[in-house]
Amino acid sequence: MSQKKNYENHSWVLQALDDAQSADHDRRNKAREANAFVDAPDGQWEDRWKEINDNAPRYTFDMVTSLVDQIHSQMSRTSYDIKVRPAGGSATKETAKLYDGMVRNIENISDADQVYDQAGLESIICGVDGWEIATEYVDGDSFDQDLIIKAIPDYLDSTWLGMHKKRDGSDAQYGFVLRGLAEQVFKDKYPNRGDGGNLGSDRTSNTYYHRADVVMIGEFRYLLPVQHELALMDTGEVIEVDADYLMVYDELQRAGSTEIKRRKRTKLKMFSRLFDNTGWIGKPRETFFENWLNIIPVYANWKYVENKVIYRGQVEQGMDAQRVLNYSLSREVAETSLAPKDFFWATEAQEEGQDWSRLNVSQSPVQNYSFDEDAPGPPVRAGGATPNTGLARITETMQAIIGTTAGMFHANMGDNKNAQSGLAIQKLQDKGDEGNNKFMVARQIAQRHTGRILVNAIPRVYDQGRQVRILGEDGSFDMQVLGTQVQDEQTGEIVVLNDLSEGVYDVICTTGPSYSSRQSETVSGITAIAQVAPEVLQLGGDVLMNNMASPGMEQLAARARARLFKAGEIPEDQMTDEEKAQVQQSQQQPPPEDPMMIAAQAEMKSAQAEEISAQTKQMESQGNIQIKMRELEIKSQELNVREFEATTDRYKAQVDAGDKQAGIALKGAQAANQLAEAEGKELENTSKTSGLSSVVQQMQELSNAGGPFGG
Q1: What distances in angstroms separate CA 19 from CA 15, 176, 240, 337, 399, one per listed residue?
Q2: What is the distance, to the nearest Å, from the Cα of residue 622 to the centroid of all Cα atoms in its chain?
Q3: Torsion angle of alpha carbons 153, 271, 302, 405, nearest 10°?
């Protein structure tokens, strides 16, 4: 390319597309040929041979597709798990598990297993395929978006990456995806585009001629360096300085979060723009993706040689042998079917009187003939088809070559003529699987890069404060709310800050038996261990039942786990969020009392109640005594008052008479009255002392004992 790189220049983009197609043209043609070899009618016959043998029998004895299916079956039985691991900064295992669950949920809502599986099959056939990651709204009325893993239809004729040297295409700076729109759809969507803007592929011939008419437009995806400013807070957070940050800057300061310093950072941002052969369709669109393009290729048998990406599927190596096999077997069929039938040489005399027409249908072991002196002996059998031993050898050789080039053996195909032991069969299967691991590795590398792109994009697509589903490996799920939000006091608007201090995470993709296979292995393993250690079933009964795919096992597992949780036998790091919440709630509340202690306390309270009742009755009895004593006191006082009044009347009479002696007597009466009062008080004190002394003594005893009236 002689022009200087300019992503805004339409002619430069057209030239870049042409260069990408030209660089990969030879490999793409081989891949297309392999696709047609497997799927197209007469695809396993070369055009030249079809012309030469136009009127001759032409049969296809397909042995290649069964090998492809065998490899694909092995791939389907393999589990590919994207794992996120903390790698630095403030990264934590809990956040890594959150990423794991979100990635699994994205794969689930995308039906990614079908996308991965189809791309893996195409890589086995032709050596290359791929998928993309996009964003879609959750529903028509929502502003929330989800990351989606999508297949790229007809990857061979629609998708090219710019120059790249890495197998996952992660170092490509731009790429192209061509889309075919029905003519009417194109006119309705882009009424001002006119005709003649149809983009072309590098395909030189078509395998199928009955196809829908479409208008091909292109999507140019490219990475541009974009500068961002970062602010370091005294809390250790690193926040991107954008409009949201500036809006809530004062609220952060009042909350005690102070900015320490800033720095600028350059990162790659992916943009997208539609175009056709005549010009741009719309303006550039900024995406959520950074650092990498959202196109993920799957390369089988990948190499980078002479500044060129090389790849190859399984079919390419077996095409020649399969074609020769088809030719040789077709010739064998033709020669055998056209060869003269078997017959007898006999004279007329030998044939005379015999029914030779029943020779092929008679069950008799004896066939008679007439003796001819001129031709001694019976009729002579001669003629019949003569096998072509050369074609037979070619057929046998080609069958062996096809299996050898595929690295497949009889044991891999379920065919074991020698009836070898199970261990020997397993060894042969493992030997065959080793040759097919390259296809598993191709898919593994692509899915790892998919996980990296997802983890990188998740913080920008899934806003803080949004509730998301976290999916477990076994299909169980939980709901989580992401992060926190800040409200701008001036506008009342909720602002989400892009916190980049959450740590650094890397991604791997592990392979192994599928989850259902591992479930079976888990059941077998636990059962075997339980034979020598029965306590394993008590500690892991819920795990065992969760791995049994039988109706009702889920409910039994839940009951077993509830019992283990109540007994405190589930480690904290294995608890679910609900179980952790229950533990925290129980720690905040006083522990439940022992039932035996509760019963003892009840008995104690009952005894205390009986004692109080007895004391109350005793006090009532003492109260009655006090009432009677008071009545006696009142009567005594009434008696003294009457005597005093009588004495007073007498003395008054004496005073009225003026008798001096009466005055003296009056004084004597007063003295007598005082004496009577003193005697009355003495009587009262005596009565109280004698009648209430026992009551006072009992009250004093209760007081000293701390009873209900004590203190």
Answers
A1: 6, 12, 38, 53, 40
A2: 81
A3: 0
Helices (DSSP H) in 200-346: which residue ranges? 243-247, 249-254, 315-338
Q: What is the pLDDT of residues 82-127, one digit of tens each?
A: 999 998 877 888 888 889 999 999 999 999 999 999 999 999 999 9
For residue 68, give the nearest of 357, 412, 327, 510 by alpha carbon.
412
Taking the C-alpha atoms of residue 136 and residue 139, their distance in angstroms, rounded to an integer, is 8
Provide DSSP, 508-527.
Answer: EEEEEE-HHHHHHHHHHHHH
Q: What is the largest CA-CA distance in the chain?
A: 215
Tokens of 427: 């060894």
Reduced to 3 states (helix: H, G, I; strand: E, B; else coil), residue 168 is: coil
- What rounded mean pLDDT belongs to the chain? 79
Dihedrals phi, psi of 224, to nearest 5 degrees: -125, 140
Three state DSSP letters for 191-241: CCCCCCCCCCCCCCCCCCCCCCCEEEEEEEEEEEEEEEEEEEECCCCEEEC
Q: Measure the CA–CA gap between 335 and 388, rounded to whole angstroms.
A: 8
Rounded CA-CA distance 482/496 in Å is 11
- Cα atoms in the 13 Å half-sphere on the side-chain side of 631: 6
d(CA 78, CA 515): 9
CB 636 within 8 A of CB 654: no
Residue 342's contacts (CB-CB under 8 Å, 6 or more residues apart) are 381, 383, 384
Q: How many other C-beta atoms lie within 10 A of the C-beta of residue 362?
A: 11
Return the C-alpha torsion angle 270, 271, 275, 281, nearest 10: 160
Written as six digits, the tokens of 457 are 């994009």
589-621, pLDDT tens digit by residue?
665 566 666 766 777 777 777 777 777 677 666
Whole-prediction pTM value?
A: 0.67
Q: Is the pLDDT of residue 413 over 60?
A: no
- Cα–Cα separations (whole angstroms), residue 54 to 51, 209, 335, 638: 5, 20, 16, 154
| Contacts with 581 (C-beta within 8 Å, 6 or more apart), sequence order | none
332 in helix, strand or coil? helix
Residues 6+ apart with CB under 8 A from 296: 130, 131, 132, 133, 168, 169, 446, 449, 450, 453
Q: Cα–Cα distance between 85 and 401 in angstroms, integer? A: 45
Task: Round to whole Å and give the CA distance between 180 and 162.
Answer: 21
Three-point CA angle 588, 591, 595, nearest 5°: 160
Find how far residue 560's CA is from the centre of its chain.
24
Question: Which helix (H) or strand (E) element contains residue 372?
Answer: none
Q: Take residue 74 and report the two structure tokens written for it.
A: 């092995």
pLDDT (tens digit, 9 = 90+) per residue, 228-243? 888 888 877 778 888 7
Three-class SS state of 37: helix
The rounded distance, in Å, linking the Cα atoms of 167 and 301 is 10
Whole-angstrom distance, CA of residue 596 vs CA of residue 589: 20
Separation CA 238–CA 245 (nearest Å): 11
Where is 139: in which H helix or E strand? none
Q: Is the pLDDT of residue 59 over 90?
A: no
Helix residue ranges per DSSP H, 372-481:
389-406, 422-461
Element (H, E) at 189: helix 183-189
